[in-house]
Amino acid sequence: xxxxDVVIVGAGHAGxxxxxxxxxxxxxxxxxxxxxxxxxxxxRPPLSKARLTPHAGPEPLELYPASVYADRRIExxxxxxxxxxxxxARCVELADGTRVGWRRxxxxxxxxxxxxxxxxxxxxQVHVLRDVQDAAGLAAAFGPRRRLVVVGGGWxxxxxxxTARGFGTEVTVVEARSQVVARVAGAEVASFLERYHxxxxxxxxxxxxxxxxxxxxxxxxxxxxxxxxxxxxCDAVLLxxxxxxxxxxxxxxxxxxxxxxxVDMTGATAIADxxxxxxxxxxxxxxxxxxxxxxxxxSANEQARHAAAAICGATPxxxxxxxxxxxxxxxxxxxxxxxxxxxxxVVRGEPRRPGFAVFHxxxxxxxxxxxxxxxxxxxxxxxxxxxxxxxxxxALADSAVPLRDAxxxxxxxxxx
Length: 416
Ligand SMILES: Cc1cc2nc3c(=O)[nH]c(=O)nc-3n(C[C@H](O)[C@H](O)[C@H](O)COP(=O)(O)OP(=O)(O)OC[C@H]3O[C@@H](n4cnc5c(N)ncnc54)[C@H](O)[C@@H]3O)c2cc1C
Description:
Residues 4-304 form the FAD/NAD(P)-binding domain. This protein is an alpha/beta fold.
């Protein structure tokens, strides 16, 4: 059996980042990065945006060219699935029965699209979107006079709706809640996005429950059946109702997982020398005093950096403010911080057109910023959140006041 100092399972954003950060921290041991997809590790965000296209795009998706792995002595084992991790014998077992030993194990297995238990989800017209193959299959259904029904009006659903419209596709978004992105965005941004999608020709049906998907015309088209009796005929359906952590491997290895692998800030799990990072984890967000899953590239990268530092015995960095972005039509939506515990939403700019920001404040502290085509407001908001300085809500709301002047000076030095 071959042995490595670090074995990483999952060659996505998190797995790739921890491998490269280990070298940046000066780690000199052997590293094996195992991924079940048969291609070089790649960026997932473009799969619902620029790279969701029926035509092959020129932009390479790879996180790094192959030479970077070779230069950094990161061994890649692609197209290989890890079936088991034995934490007593300190080895993993691959699908072909090969065993590989480790001193430290990093689980970075990501998340898988949720498939609701509805009749018809197995039809060939029904898609999910997580990897390059999913994207190619879905994009083949785009084009003028083609009809797409997107089930789920979250970030992924809205991004795909916008991209599909760009190819002339007729798009209907079906959302069970009373508003799109209701779980992940504040009311002002949610209402704005709903109006914007409608203005671009997307049919948005909120408060709508899907009952079944039926195949039609010898399996060439489908009909999405809603509980109010409506039938939406279409050529393709995208299920975009969320993702669940791929924590089964961790569970079989003896980790108690309740909707994700519980980890501390360094990615350490309950088992010594076993780390977990990325979408598969339930992680602390110390600035907000909570533990949650954060499905974002920033979180995956941050956790990877902390885990690499812990493995190398390096001083950990301060936790960063979580942030996320989404591109839809000509909109860039950027969100920093967590809005859940804020008590006041302060709008800066005109929320009926692109170029506004919503600041979520608790007491005199900024807790989150949501910006729509407002990169300066996003950048400064993110800085103010991480500096945890007192701010004036009225100054934040007043576009005539420069944002930096929203900070309340607390100069306590005696006069003169
Ligand atoms: C279409 C799409 C658009 C997105 N857009 C954005 C965005 O705009 N902004 C943003 O911040 N985030 C976005 N995200 C989320 C972001 O991509 C994820 O948060 C990020 O990929 C998480 O990284 P990860 O390494 O944890 O998981 P992944 O990138 O999913 O990587 C996990 C890898 O592990 C592999 N794997 C799983 N089990 C095994 C096993 N047993 N053996 C071997 N390999 C295994 C998987 O196949 C996968 O390749 C998007 C995600 C998707 C799908």
